[in-house]
């Protein structure tokens, strides 16, 4: 999608501090971190929400999960991390490009909110 901020980051039209990238996934630092480690893990393919996923996207989600685990290990988050995704407005989704927040570097409580 042309106006999607995450698609613009993937196309390098908007700068981001990228910490991991492969052919289908990009991971970059959140500009408003809520934890010592706060990264956004996105598929490069534009998928607005979980409700927009198709059968052919199953491998995309697997690649995103694997990238999150690799980056968490690289960031020394062996004690634990949280991987969160918000779907639509009531859950707090602000950017309509499927993404996960990888949070770590401090203890987290439960329930989250």
Task: List key phrases describing it.
single chain, HIT family, subunit A, 22% strand, 113 residues, 5 strands, 5-stranded antiparallel beta sheet
**Secondary-structure-derived class:** alpha+beta
- Count of separate structural domains: 1
CATH topology: HIT family, subunit A
| Helix count from the secondary structure assignment | 2
Q: What is the CA-CA span between the terminal residues?
A: 31 Å
What is the number of strand segments?
5
Which CATH first-tier class would you pick? Alpha Beta
What is the fold's blueprint, element by element?
Elements: H1 5-10, E1 18-21, E2 25-29, E3 37-43, H2 58-74, E4 81-84, E5 100-104
Antiparallel strand pairs: 1-2, 2-3, 3-5, 4-5
Molecular structure report:
This protein has a five-stranded antiparallel sheet with strand order 1-2-3-5-4, with helices on one face. It has helices at residues 5-10, 58-74, and strands at 18-21, 25-29, 37-43, 81-84, 100-104. It is 20% helix and 22% strand. It has 113 residues and is α+β, with helices and mostly antiparallel strands. The chain is built from two helices and five strands.
Summarize the structure.
It contains two helices and five strands. The protein is α+β, with helices and mostly antiparallel strands and 113 residues long.
